[in-house]
Amino acid sequence: KVFGAKPGDGAAAGSYGYTNSGYSVYEEENDRLTESLRSKVSAIKSLSIEIGTEVKNQNKMLSEMENDFDSTGGLLGATMGRLRTLSRGSQTKLLCYMMLFSLFVFFVIYWIIKLR
């Protein structure tokens, strides 16, 4: 029965207090909002997957750089040890040549890295 309707008012016998067309409008609105939400969730999911992939690539690059810096640090430490050994002797001219050569190598490596 229709709420507030009297039996003689001409109300439909199977009515539950709402019209079928009003219910259909709410269902269509609900379906539209559900589809909108589904598309937004899908976009966020793909974005989060892309972020995860980028983070993995960045972590891999950082670990490679860490390994490169460790090997370079070891090489530099060995070179400094050799320079200390040379500086203890009276071979000042040889030490000067070694320093100039080291600076030259440093600038060549710097120039190569800048061109990458």
Q: Structural class, please?
A: mainly alpha
Helix content estimate = over 70%
Helix and strand string, N-terminal first?
Answer: HH
**Structure annotation, total helices:** 2
Q: How does the major sheet shape up?
A: none
Number of strands: 0
Describe this structure in words.
With 116 residues, the protein is mainly alpha-helical. It contains two helices and no strands. The longest helix is centred in the middle third of the chain and has 69 residues, at 20-88. It starts with 19 loop residues before the first helix and ends with a helix.
Quick description:
It contains 2 helices and no strands. The protein has helices at residues 20-88, 92-115.
Distinctive features:
ER-Golgi transport; disordered N terminus; mainly alpha; 116 residues
Compile the SSE list and pairings:
Elements: H1 20-88, H2 92-115
Transmembrane segments: 94-113
Keywords: Coiled coil, Endoplasmic reticulum, ER-Golgi transport, Golgi apparatus, Membrane, Phosphoprotein, Protein transport, Transmembrane, Transmembrane helix, Transport
Main location: membrane
